[in-house]
Amino acid sequence: GDFKDYKVLYSESESSNKDTIQTYTDKTITSHVIIDFDPLVENWFWVQVTDTMGLSSIGGGGMTNVLDSPPITPIIDSIYFIGDGIAIDWVQSQDNDFSNYSIQYSHTASFDSFEILYTSNNQSDNNYFYSCDTNTNYYAFDFAASVPAYYRLITTDVWGQESLSNVSTIEFEYPNLTISAPDTIVRPSDETVALQLVSAEVFDADGLETIKWVGFTSYHVEGDSMMNKGNYIYLYDDGSDVILYPPNFTSGDDVSGDGIYSFRIPIYGTGFTDPSFQTIAGHFIWYFTVQYHCLAIELFTHTIVIE
User: Fold this and answer.
1) Is the pTM of this model over 0.85?
2) Cis peptide before 39 (omega within 30 of 0)
3) What topology is assigned to 76-169 in CATH?
């Protein structure tokens, strides 16, 4: 009957000095609840019993909490082009203390710098669709600097601990392009216009529906300049069903939807004096581009001489 009080003692480690965090004089109280603590570090506790004579003892060894583990390492299943964007699939988190997902992207696999593409606190999420900017051409020769090329998924728990997934990138096969164009074009010697058919056949293992357009730009070697103000000359797979310019100018394409894109390029004769109706002679490099989903792939060239 000489009980005086309980003291709950706390320390950051088993061997550090102990501080009293709570005193109870009611002998029937045998528990203490702590709401504010860090589960990521050790939190050691003891109970000291003191009697009315001032004698006290600390029962047994102290106890600490089980350190909270980081989230389960997330896994990105796949990243792929679909429609006008990029889809990212991952394995759903099974953590009991889940807080949120975030997707980071970087221009380098080392993630020296990165940006946040997506965040969600919905644990059932397991995919994200990233819509490409349809007004921008993302070039394959500069792919890493134009389209987010490297991705990783971060899972965060309620205590702020993070786990990072594997670094993933987009896997795809480049479409193949076969160019049909002459090596030399001779201008008419009078005031007439010759229409030179240029065609390019596209093959893509994923099907022609992945191809948005085909076109080329023209570089004049002697003039060290881009023709047509650097704008694309587009080819069409329309079977010549579409009137491109009045009154009845069509692409010259034979069959619609067969993967062969065509356009008839006007070659002006040397008899024209109006600068607007002249075809420059010289050596030219044509850079052909295939728009695959939201990725413009410029891997194809054709060299031509205009006399």
Assistant:
1) no
2) no
3) Immunoglobulin-like (2.60.40)
